[in-house]
Amino acid sequence: MNDLILKFQQIPKLLLGFIIVVLILLVLVYRDPPTTVCDIQMTEVKKRLVKGFYQDDERGQYESGVMTAFNKCMKTNSPGGCYDIFRRFDYFEKQIQSVPNQCGTDDSALFVRKALIKALKLMIQIAWGEKPPVNRYNKTSWLDASDIGLFCRLKRQFERLYGEAQWKSFAQSLIPKLPEATTLPRKDQWDLSMFSYSCLGVY
Questions:
Q1: What are the b/e assignments for 89-117, b being 16+ CB within 10 Å?
Q2: Angle (CA) 125 128 129, round 5°
Q3: What is the pTM of this model?
């Protein structure tokens, strides 16, 4: 201990002062990291999503917000039961259009990825149903043109922010979990799911 104190005393005062300043700056940066462009963008997106997505516009109650709407859709699996959550996901998609491509994989945008996956997973599961579609022409189930348009817009946002490779990885992880999917050849699994839906010209 005495040797350490002696060594500190031998350091020139100017150099010692510089070292102390650097150490203080490092501690400050660690405790409060500098704000990045992505941090700023995500903060603004979150503010816009509070009303219209997470919460209920009229009552302002989270319990009456996105989770209630999501669970209702899962339970009823019908156009009427899913109307509210689809409306919220449509609003969500419009808000994340402003997210820069490079911010998709940033930690500050993790909530965007989670919500996108949840929305797409829900729509893919709805289209698939409790058993595989009869054929590839029936793979959209009761989803109408506006619902399919929403699916395609969400898919485009996913591919824009995370790339086509991540989209395929998402498909490979979800398809085997769809009811009775593993009883089918892999090509049929893909062809009968919404993953294979061509979104060309769909908005």
A1: bbebbebbeebeeebbebebbeebbebbb
A2: 85
A3: 0.80
